[in-house]
Amino acid sequence: MVHRDRRGRRPTRFAEVDRRTRRMLVPAIAITASPRSEFGKGAARKLRRAGQIPAVIYGSGAELVHVTLPAHELGLALRTSRVVFTIDYAGALITAKPRDVQRDPVRRVIEHIDLIIITKEEAAERGAIGDAIRATEAAATEAGMDPAAAVAAMEDAIAHGESASDAADHALSDVREKAEEYSEANAHAAEATAEAPAEGA
């Protein structure tokens, strides 16, 4: 029996998704997925002890599949802002992004992840935003400013319609301007301290 979506369309196969996305120019993190056939909490714990994380991949009309991903590689990849994955699964390359990451509330280790398939256009936009975030964080840190505040300003600009590159430029400009103001204020304070008469003079 062939399952169809709400519009009566046949589900997209992963190979078809691969043909649409593998020309993506934005660098993505490559990771290999293995099929998963055992389910339940006991099976999930066994997988995690073996260094594998249970996951599901879905979206773009494709049938949902249950897979496992290498825990160490996945953990490193999720440190990247707006990470995009190129997943090698069943002979196809699938471009996807994290949709939901479940972690242990105490140890904060990954317990399960949902990955949603995206188009090459979505991947390119996500990659551009990730690059802009990293550039903004680096510039803010170098200037002695709060990188989180700079990134928040950049993301707010993107939410209001600016492109990632324009938002990053504006955020970097703001960071540099505030750093100069901070430096000038410190210089004036130092001058005022130096010019003040010594106590008891």
Low-pLDDT stretches: 1-26
CATH superfamily of the largest domain: Ribosomal Protein L25, Chain P
Helix content: 40-55%
Please give the order of strands in the largest beta sheet.
1-5-6-7-3-4-2
- The helix/strand order is HEEHEEHEEEHHH
Overall shape: it is: elongated
Count of helical regions = 6
CATH fold name of the largest domain: Ribosomal Protein L25, Chain P
Structural class of the helix and strand makeup? alpha/beta
Q: How many β-strand runs?
A: 7
How can the largest sheet be summarized? 7 strands, mixed
CATH class of the largest domain: Mainly Beta
Q: Hey, roughly how much beta strand do the residues contain? A: 15-25%
- What would the average pLDDT be, to the nearest integer? 79
The separation of the N and C termini measures 96 Å
Identify the CATH architecture of the largest domain: Beta Barrel
Radius of gyration from CA coordinates? 24 Å
Q: Into how many domains do the coordinates divide?
A: 2
Task: Describe the protein in words.
This protein is an alpha/beta fold. It folds into 2 domains: 14-118, Ribosomal Protein L25, Chain P, CATH 2.40.240; 125-193, no CATH class. 46% of the residues lie in helices and 24% in strands. It is built from 6 helices and 7 strands, in the order H-E-E-H-E-E-H-E-E-E-H-H-H. It has helices spanning 14-21, 41-49, 71-77, 120-142, 147-159, 164-195; strands spanning 29-32, 34-35, 52-59, 62-70, 85-89, 92-103, 110-117. A 7-stranded mixed sheet has the order 1-5-6-7-3-4-2. The N and C termini lie far apart (96 Å).
